[in-house]
Amino acid sequence: MAAPTRSTGILNRRQGSLAALAAGGLILFGLGLSPVTARAAPAANVTVQNNQSSADFPNTLTFQLKIHSSTTIERIVLEYGANQTTCGDVVGKAFPDFSPGEDVTAEWTWNMHQSGSEPPGATIWWRWRVTDSDGTETLIDKKESIWLDSEHPWKSLAGGGVTLHWYRADAAFGKQMHDTATKALTHIHDLIDLQPQGTIDIYLYSTYDELGAAVLYEPGWTGGLSFGGYNIIILGIPAGEESWGMGAIAHELMHTVVGDYTFSCLVEIPTWLNEGLAMVSQGGPGAQGLSDLQASIHQNIIFPLQTLGGNFPEDANQAQLAYEESFSVVDYLIRTGEASKMRSLLTLLSGGMPIDDALNGIYGFGVNGLDTAWRQSVGAQPLGDSQLQPTATPTVVPTFQPLSVNPPPTLTASPTAGAITPTVTPTPTTTPTTAIVATESSGFGSIGSNETFLVIFAWLLCILLIVTAGTVLIIVITRRKK
Questions:
Q1: Pick from 108, 105, 116: which is nearest to 62 by CA?
Q2: pLDDT single digits (tens) 47-65
Q3: CB 105 within 8 A of CB 98
Q4: Lowest-confidence pick of 156-160, 222-226, 254-258, 379-383
Q5: pLDDT in tens, 238-253
Q6: What HEC string does the chain produce?
Q7: CB contact at 8 A, 470 and 140
Q8: Dist. CA 178–CA 173, nearest whole Å
Q9: What is the percent of the chain where pLDDT is above 90?
Q10: Domain locations in the chain?
């Protein structure tokens, strides 16, 4: 059975704009302006002699450019980023040091220890903007590379919406895990009428230590991570733990499929629904988990469903109960409805509709009505009057990785990690209305894209402008009076 997942951070997600400022970067807001377009240059004006990247995985990625121009090159800007789903366009910019001239070499290194690492298998892109002494800007063609170690002899098996990557183990292991993934996707489609949006890449490491060495700033107990927005899942499956790995694959695939379909900067689907679906996908909490849930129902210590919309409890035993109860509630919804109903519910939620309104529109009852119907189905005591009042979603305080840039992954504890307290952190609920360009000085990592902090920073900037304008106005009025 896959252990409960834990999100730190998504930012799906979705981290670290203020941290990037601390690193010396500058955040520029588009404010509705069109992106800068490079002016056309004569075909022979700039000749690219070398344009490549070299990785010291997982620490750094160095971009190198060598060009010849018929005129003096005076300015070079590197733009870079990773292919992922985000709420707004975020572009990292760097200004490498170089000596102006007609033959120019430039180099800049992306330090993942400062920015937070990209997930293994991520597609990194970059392009150069070159300006000569005449003011002509040339945009050099965009290039891409896969961020992955060369230490392991990776093998791949593709098909059915999944590409499985593994090493060390034999072909039979790869086929077994790939079959597990494709069957899980079929099961997900049967359950909720959804299919993955694009191919999902799953990277399997042979030990937890090797998995931990592939990413920075992750807990030592991490057994797997699902990166929202990238369609990437990484898991550690040591020999003898294949059964756990198969359940973890099914669990994380549900998170990925649902996350892609419901991606929105306006609303986060309730945690009980998100984790309940993932638990259903992996086959439930197991016999012991179901027995524990039944005992909690008998003792009347189960949670009102309203309280499971945000963070699950800090206590490990209560968190486990929250996962078990979420599974049972979602399983009830699926058994008493149709796959199309669950898809319709997720569609409404992705459009920003509150969960009560969405449930009423599809099933004819809200959260409390669902709680009541589920309790009747499992023989639990009904909700008390005080529990029928809507409960505010708990305020989420994300745990930020140092100078992080990536959407925070969903973490899965390894089966040998002991009791891990799951902490679920929703995606920020604010949507930038304009393109965002992150600009860095030479030597610093890429800028993060945490929309919540961007909005806070924008508000602070507006307040500063208002105060400044008011001060200027007061000075003018005072001078006129004098």
A1: 108
A2: 999 999 999 999 999 999 9
A3: yes
A4: 222-226
A5: 999 999 999 999 999 9
A6: CCCCEEECCCCCCCCCHHHHHHCCCEEEECCCCCCCCCCCCCCCCEEEEEEEEEEECCCEEEEEEEEEEEEEEEEEEEEEEECCCCCCCEEEEECCCCCCEEEEEEEEEEEHHHHCCCCCCEEEEEEEEEEECCCCEEECCCEEEEECCCCCCCEEEEECCEEEEECCCCHHHHHHHHHHHHHHHHHHHHHHCCCCCCCEEEEEECCHHHHHHHCCCCCCCEEEEEECCCCEEEEECCCCCHHHHHHHHHHHHHHHHHHHHCCCCCCCCCHHHHHHHHHHHCCCCHHHHHHHHHHHHHCCCCCCHHHHCCCCCCCHHHHHHHHHHHHHHHHHHHHHCCHHHHHHHHHHHHCCCCHHHHHHHHHCCCHHHHHHHHHHHHCCCCCCHHHHCCCCCCCCCCCCCCCCCCCCCEEEECCCCCCCCCCCCCCCCCCCCCCEEEECCCCCCCCCCCHHHHHHHHHHHHHHHHHHHHHHHHHHHHHHHC
A7: no
A8: 9
A9: 61
A10: 17-149+430-463
Query: Residue 346 is which amino acid?
Result: L
Q: Retrieve residue 304's tokens.
A: 């009102």
Q: Any idea which fold 17-149+430-463 has?
A: Immunoglobulin-like (2.60.40)
How many whole angstroms separate alpha carbon 245 and alpha carbon 225? Answer: 12
> What are the backbone angles phi and psi of residue 138, rounded to the nearest 5°?
-115, 125
In this prediction, what percent of the chain has a pLDDT beyond 70? Answer: 75
Q: Give the type of residue at 236.
A: G
Across the chain, mean pLDDT equals 80
Pairing of strands 410-413, 5-7: antiparallel
Maximum alpha-carbon separation in the chain: 90
Q: Which residue has the higher pLDDT, 212 or 424?
A: 212
More confident residue, 412 or 216: 216
Q: What's the rounded Cα separation, in Å, for the pair 424 and 277?
A: 15
